[in-house]
Amino acid sequence: MMLLNNHPIGLARGSPFPEGTDHFPEDSVPVCRACPTGWVVVDTMWLAFNGLDVLLCTIGLVACERATRKARWSIRFHVTVGLSMFIWASIEASQSLGYCWVYLNLRMFTFSTQLPGFSAIFGAIFGLGSTLIFAFVPFFSFLYLGACIGWLAFGAVPSSGTENYGTILDAVWSTLQLSSADSWSTDLAKPIFVDVDGERSWVLSAFSRLYFGLSIILFNFILVNSFVALMVEAIHYRSHRDAQHFGHMTTRRASSMLDVEFSTRASVDTTASQDPPDAMELLMAQSAAIRALTEEVASLRREVRKEASFVELDVPRVRSSVL
């Protein structure tokens, strides 16, 4: 419930005065702003044809909760508080704006999960290792929760001095203010925490400043941390693949040299009785060639061992220091 003094919506819908009569702004009564009829119809059709979206959202929340079990306690606390605030904002928005706004946010989330390449991208991220699960899943969850809180809360609370109130532009601008913790230093949007009379609650406002300030720091930390971890995992995968390639190459070369040596010995044994001087010279030349190839294989194996030792020892140390 909110008081709309001389507001076009308040005069058009819910006004106690008949059209054509004179009235003053102070004669306005509190009205409840509802969603347009078209939005309700569209959301009802979405609900009828896509009833599985609620189930998909539930599965997404369960997957997020399972991923946070492997995370640290600070990230678990952040997810819990963020989800609680999202539920609170959804209840407040559903009371003042109706069910369609809450369902619209659910549709935004489920639509993003159905984008082309979404499953492939997350599968590739999860395939890089369990160390990235605690970084990427909470990051995107916090990002979605922050957008929903900004959309719902600032859609339910009117903006001070904003002409585009109730539009997508106003909701996006309020969301940006919420994410930058700048909504309490300007008059373009009211704070998310207000009491019944519309006055600011300084205790809740201070808590919201601290919470969203820490959220921004954690967002940036997780984003940078995830990028560095992704680069380290990519380097580790490339080094491991190169080491396997060198190992297979040296194995094939060693087996081919053994075949050459066995065939050379067989040919020398057959030709030694026929022409001993020529057989001895051929044996010496082939022995020198085999020794050269053996030294080359040994050097390649030493390089492979060095590469493997770097992959097994240095990269986990770098990954642990980063994460």
UniProtKB/TrEMBL annotation:
Keywords: Membrane, Transmembrane, Transmembrane helix. InterPro entries: Ion_trans_dom (IPR005821). Pfam families: Ion_trans (PF00520). This is Ion transport domain-containing protein. The keyword Transmembrane helix applies. Residues 39-239 form the Ion transport domain. The keyword Transport does not apply. It is a multi-pass membrane protein. GO terms for molecular function: monoatomic ion channel activity. GO terms for cellular component: membrane. The chain crosses the membrane at residues 45-63, 75-91, 103-125, 132-154, 210-232. Its main location: membrane. It is found in: Membrane. It comes from Perkinsus olseni (Perkinsus atlanticus).
